[in-house]
Amino acid sequence: MSEQFNQELSLSGKIPSGHFNAAFEFTGVWQTDAANTKALAFDGVFITLYNIAIEKSQVVLCDHVKEAVPSTWEPAALASFIEKYGTHVVIGVKMGGRDIVYVKQTYTDQQHLSPLEPVDVQKKLKDMADKLFVDGTGQNISEKFVKDHGFTFTDQFPSSSYSHTAEEGGSNKSRHHSEWCQTVQFEPDVISMSFIPITSLLSGINGSGFLTHAINLYIRYKPPIEELHQFLEFQLPRQWAPVFGELALGPDRKQQSSPSLQFSFMGPKLYVNTTPVDVGMKPVTGLRLFLEGKKSSCLAIHLQHLSSLPKTFQLEHEQIGNISDPSSERRYYEKVQWKSFSHICTAPVESEEDLAIVTGAHFEVGDSGFKKVLFLRLHFSKVIGAATLRKIDWDGSPAMGQKSGIISSFISTRFSTVQKPPPKQPEVNINSAVYPGGPPVAAQDPKLLKFVDTTEMTRGPQDSPGYWVVSGAKLNVDKGKIYLRVKYSLLTLILPDEDM
Fold first, then answer.
1. Which are the contacts of 283, defined by CB distance < 8 A and separation ≥ 6?
2. Domain ranges of the chain
3. Burial 416-443 (b: 16+ CB within 10 A, else e)
4. Which ranges of the chain have pLDDT less than 70?
5. pLDDT of residue 233
6. Which of 88, 249, 310, 422 is the Cys-Cys partner for 195 at CB 3.0 to 4.6 Å?
7. 444: buried, middle or exposed (CB in 10 Å: 19+, 13-18, 0-12)?
8. Which Gene Ontology cellular-component terms appear in the entry (predicted)?
């Protein structure tokens, strides 16, 4: 439907416009909104009194606008250009009035989700629109429609929304649609516009390709305009360390000398790769547990990082994060299966410095009596210069539940009804690569996969505001399975005022 809206605005592509987002009250990243939406529909009356349009061939940008285009990838200058001149140029306006009903269903809240299928929604919407716009008897029909079919007003529930708007043109004091129609000619308003991308007017200008890329990122991910500079700073290629080409594909000779874990009597051995992974002075944006080796029997920690350091970031090595205190960590030891076999340490691993971020990691296997204990160690670097810690957020694998104490678990089970989570919808993937999820890997041994959750814990441009970095992590265990919880931080750079 976003493509249909774009065609009415003389725009190409499927990325939603601001008009589409406002109509259906979308505020997030469009791939996430699309994956969470079950159905969209609208019906209404458009009264066009007159059009004002300019021929595309007659539109020319002023010289000072062309001169403001950065010739290289300069996030600060690109963000400044977009904020000052926008992304599109208006070439046409329609005046009149419109009275429209919008309906939206989403998957985000199973409790309030309407049971109607998209075809039923369209049919019910048509019936309601006929009464509102044709019969003129629909003064209070919207409330009845909501009660009968499980829809809710947008300001009450985000799961299924219904809205009736008559704000463009005409008098707001009219009680019936027929009365409103009579007032449009006396109080017309803008009901539609036609646009062309500003980059289409920059052909041959040095640096227009960089501006096009920046505008596409801005439209696709919708970061706050005041944070666009830092968002663009982080839109660098991302890669995993170690890279797939560095992983051993031959016989697992090294595993014989690697430490191993065993979680039950006669259970399989899980070898542990204790080699440090260092990404250099680059921000880490994600972590994952990975089973390496020909038999996928060696547990390793992998790091996703930016391919280079953003220009506004300056890092120096931080030593505090590598210090561990065995006496304080002992209370975090947790069994995976049997109590007398290998444990993991679930202590949070983070720096005492607020501005420290992760730039390396490794596993360590220690002894606690007759038991082996798995530790996660992180290496930190400190962001120096003008930066402040804005927000931190711990995130865990969606496939794993959150552990709670015995008492709270009992109360939740005994006195609360179990809420079935909404079905997970497939993500909208816009990556045209042959393997958008990464190179293919060998089939993993299910015997060891039942002990390790290999979900990739990452944050990228789709996670608003788009410049999260990893600043800590911890190992967890749930129902005999080891998984990661990752601490993300937003570091806001205090940039010099260009006007001073």
1. 234, 305, 306, 309, 310, 313, 357, 359, 469, 470
2. 2-222, 237-398+444-493
3. eeeeeeeeeeeeeeeeeeeeeeeeeeee
4. 108-115, 135-167, 175, 245-256, 319-327, 386, 399-446, 495-500
5. 94
6. 88
7. middle
8. plasma membrane
CA atoms within 13 A on the CB side of 106: 18
Tokens standing for residue 142: 């919207």
As beta bridge partners, residue 377 has 362
- DSSP letter at 461 equals T
Tokens 């983070």, residue located = 350
Amino acid at 29: V
Main-chain phi, psi angles of 228, to 5 degrees: -60, -40
Q: What is the pLDDT of residues 146-169, one digit of tens each?
A: 444 444 433 333 345 455 454 578
Contact status, residue 85 vs residue 69, Cβ threshold 8 Å: no
The amino acid sitting at 182 is Q
Whether the CB-CB separation of 148 and 92 falls below 8 Å is answered with no
Q: Which of 347, 386, 313, 387 is nearest to 472 (CA)?
A: 347
Instruction: Name the DSSP class of 245.
Output: G
What pLDDT does 304 receive? Answer: 97
H helix or E strand, kind and range, residue 357: strand 356-368
pLDDT for res 147: 46
**Rounded CA separation 79/83 (Å):** 6
Sign of the dihedral through C-alpha 133, 136, 142, 144:
negative
